[in-house]
Amino acid sequence: MNRPVKRQRMEEPDAQTPESLQRSISPPKKRDRKLTVVKSPWQLTWIRDLPEGDNQDAVTLKDLLSDPLISECWEFNFLHDIPFLMNSFDPDTRHLVKVHLVHGFWKREDANRIALENASSEFENIKTHIAPMPEMFGTHHSKMMILFRHDGTAQVIIHTANMIPKDWTNMSNGVWKSPLLPKLSGAQNFQASPEDHSVGSGQRFKIDLLNYLKAYDRRKIICKPLTDKLTHYDFSSIKAALVASVPGKHDARDMSETSWGWAALKRCLQHVPCQDHGDSDIVVQVSSIATLGAKDDWLQKTLFEPLTRSKNPGLGRPRFKVVFPTADEIRRSLDGYASGGSIHTKIQSSQQAKQLEYLRPIFHHWANDSPRGASESNLYAVLGLFA
């Protein structure tokens, strides 16, 4: 009588099963994903009286201008200290750099204009230009440098500091730098509309920048040599949108032209996707507040309304907060009350007093937990914070 075949225990290895399948198998090791670190085009200016550890990635004016390869500099600003500017170039080549200084002091008797003309006469390589001011009380607050180098590259630098030592010493300011822009390989017909290129692209940035510079030439030729030169450079490495202001009356609905001011900001934000998570804040930081009116119509309808725009319609309205320093915060800053010269607002008239009433509930402080004094901010910024 044949005995039945003995059944194999489950825990016993099958003799017919390949040994490779009998061993425990670990999952394959995950590949180490290499993180791509993209250096921010934004930096803060170096604060002289803070330790080096608190100045991480901060820049001085010499960091921006001391390259001996710089051959030409177009400098746009409100206030200028020419010796301070020239001392920031390489000492061996500063006398060779072609410097174009653009300011807005159009009155011949203006003390600032006289001082600029006297100071520039000490340097054979400086040429001053007066920006057109169509309004009597207009000011030229643009702060920008456009650099050309002997290696055939160009660079655009937009910042918030006046070209004076005070603003580059103990005042917090911001600097945006483009990459070094190479020349285009071939000729280019540059008659494009802004709408032909997406917001945030280098080509759109180039169109808007050149249109801004062309606005200086409305009365007399100022920036045409600069725009003609920039046309031949490749802006494709820039990932940014330019929002500039030009004095005058403009049609905010005309999408075939570059928009200016709040209309340009609104136009840009309409391309930015946002998600509605309920509570959200938009924080605005400024160093100067003009007379806006006894009612908050301009603030709510002209400034805040464009800031609510995004690519996604129907989102909830965010809370608006305005960061503005108190007198005590100015006193406790590194330069003390002296830094208050960069902070401007008025509360003397009855209209200005009413303005303060609707501004006070939305005024906020930056939290500063540092035991040392802070630098007073001359930085203009708009931050959208979405919870």
Automatic annotation (TrEMBL):
UniProt keywords, alphabetically: DNA damage, DNA repair, Exonuclease, Hydrolase, Nuclease, Nucleus
The protein, known as: Tyrosyl-DNA phosphodiesterase 1
MF-aspect GO terms: 3'-tyrosyl-DNA phosphodiesterase activity; double-stranded DNA binding; exonuclease activity; single-stranded DNA binding
Chief place where the protein resides: nucleus
One GO CC term on file: nucleus
InterPro entries: Tdp1 (IPR010347)
Species the sequence originates in: Fusarium oxysporum f. sp. conglutinans
Active site per UniProt: H141
UniProt-listed Gene3D superfamilies: Endonuclease Chain A
Single GO BP term: DNA repair
Compartments, record wording: Nucleus
Keyword DNA repair: yes
Sequence similarity: Belongs to the tyrosyl-DNA phosphodiesterase family.
Region of interest (Disordered), ranges: 1-33
CDD domains with a match to the protein in the record: PLDc_yTdp1_1 (cd09194)
Binding site for substrate: K143
